[in-house]
Amino acid sequence: MAYNLTSDRTMHKVICSDCGSEAEVPFKPSGDRPVYCKECYRKHRPERY
Ligand SMILES: [Zn+2]
Fold first, then answer.
1. Domain range annotation of the chain
2. Long-range residue pairs from 26-33, CB within 8 A, at least 24 positions apart, any chain
3. What's the 42 CA to ligand 1 centre distance in angstroms?
């Protein structure tokens, strides 16, 4: 009963748009924008224009 820390966070399996490996993201991929694994996400960090 003690370790229920992340139970309400649904993870979605995606294919990283950069390296092509399987990754999990805590949001639902919309399909019209690239998704990255954790490492590639750091490289492709969204920047404001
Ligand atoms: Zn990647």
1. 12-43
2. none
3. 9
